[in-house]
Amino acid sequence: KLFGWKTAGDTSHIAKGVFIAAPHTSNWDLPFTLGTAWSMGLEITWVGKHTLFKFPFGPFFRWLGGMPVDRTKRTSFVSRTADLLRESEAMYLIIAPSGTRSRAETWKSGFYAIAREAGVPILPGYVDYARKEGGIGPALDVTGDVRKDMDAVRAFYADVTPKYPENWATPR
Q1: Cβ-count burial of 12 within 10 angstroms (0-12 exposed, 13-18 middle, 19+ buried)?
Q2: Phi, psi at residue 68, to the nearest 5°?
Q3: Coil, helix or strand for 84?
Q4: CA-CA distance, 30 to 21, in Å (whole number)?
Q5: Residues 32-73 pLDDT 10s
Q6: H/E run at residue 152
C-alpha cells in the first residue's frame, strides 16, 4: 500500500503449493512479492541464488524466509524440497523459474518437478507493474502432461506486465 499497490487472489483453501514468482525482471520483484505474501497473511519460503545468502545479508535473507540454491552444483534440491513440502502441514514455496532478472531464453523446470514430486499445486504468483498489483492466480494441478500444464501457465501470464518487458521470457 505504501507504494500504491494492491493484492489479489486467495489461498485460504490451499495449505501448500509451489508459487511461481513471475515475471522476474527487476530487483523490486522480491520486495513486492514478499510484501504481497505478507499482506495476504502467508508464511512463505522463497528460493534464491546461494550468493545472496553470503555475509552480511545471509542471516537477514534467511529471516525473510529465504532458502539458498547453488545452481552451479548438482544437488538433490528438487527431491529434498519436494520432501519438505510433502512433510509440511502448510508450506508455500516461492520460486522464480526464469532464474534471473536478465533475459532468459527458458524457464528452469525445478518448480514443476518439485510440485509434481510433492503432489502439490502450482500457484501462479505475479507482480504486474501496469496495474500495480501483486497476487496469486488460481491453483493449477500438475497433471504430468507438461505441455497442457505449461499452456495453462502461459495463458495466466499473458496479460501480466513486468517492470522490464524486454527481459521477460515466455515460459516454454
Answers
A1: exposed
A2: -75, 150
A3: helix
A4: 9
A5: 998 899 889 888 998 888 898 999 999 999 999 999 988 788
A6: helix 146-157
